[in-house]
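User: Please predict the structure of the protein below. I'd like the answer in structure-token form so I can feed it into my own downstream comparison script.

Assistant: Understood. Taking the following sequence of 342 residues as input:
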Amino acid sequence: MQKLNRSLRRKASLLMTLLLMLGILSGCGSKPTILKPYEPMDATKSSEISPTAEKAAIKRLDGVSGNTLLIKDDSAYDSSRISARQALLVNITSGEVLLSKQALTAIPAGNFTKLFAAYVVLNNEENPQRQVSISQDTYNLRSDLVRCKFQKDDVFTVQDLLYASLMYCANDAVIALSSSRPGGSISAFVNEMNALSDRLNLKSSGFSNAYGYPSGEGRQETTLLDVYTVLREMIDNYPAFSEIISKPVYFCTYYNSKSEPLSASWSSSLPYYNSEEGYDLPEHLELLGGICEPAASIPSQIFCLFKDAYGTQYLAILAGCNSYDDCYEQMQNLAGYIPSIY
């Protein structure tokens, strides 16, 4: 009987050892579930990533991709380091909102209008190398809003004009794009921008022109949440957009009215590429791109796309900055809310 008991105890001990070893081995191979960048986030998981605040969280569909973004009341976020009037910082890998300050408040659309215009072009243009002849429409802008100084009948490609309108924030490039749509017109293009807002359920955005600055009567406004939605749509679905916003400078060959080849170049409006000041991003972040409102416009706007050492990506958007330089400093502060350690 004693031998039998010892044998049973040995077998039980061996069994427990085997179970423990199996548990350890299985634990070594397991990792927390992390959504890949731009992977659609199931709405049922949103509560695990961004818990609902005491007040009812505002739930919005992120574009048309089925992602869910939860924005709590402003009081739930510490925005003490942000003096800009509006701010939004989102971990777009997980869908977590890290900071929101007046992100649902209607603001003058300003330079963000060009993002909506670019989306209309990317969503409809089948041939980015299609040639566009600069028309008289481009010269209807006020002189202080002209940046590229095109000549009538210059010929650029759609791609060239997209680079100029986004990275160089050129109003005249947007006019050239909007007036060149086959069978369309500038007013028809603006109607497409407003139809885009309706399709994406962006109730807070409306436009009376394609480049961003009020002209007479008409609605010209958006919110940071709507800007985020359009940015995500382009980042997710159009690699050309990410390529454009990541370039410090763009070179192209165009043709004048005599069909003679000429060269043009445009520099990014993003101060990280152009400023001589000694501002640096946190060491754990890599800048993937962005645009900033030109210096002459107050209040100024900026957005940046970042990636950390783990591959996690973040969209940082600011509006209501006091100047071009202030955009830069406020973005430094906003980037400081991105955690360096998980």
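That's the full token string. The CA atoms of residues 17 and 23 lie 10 Å apart.
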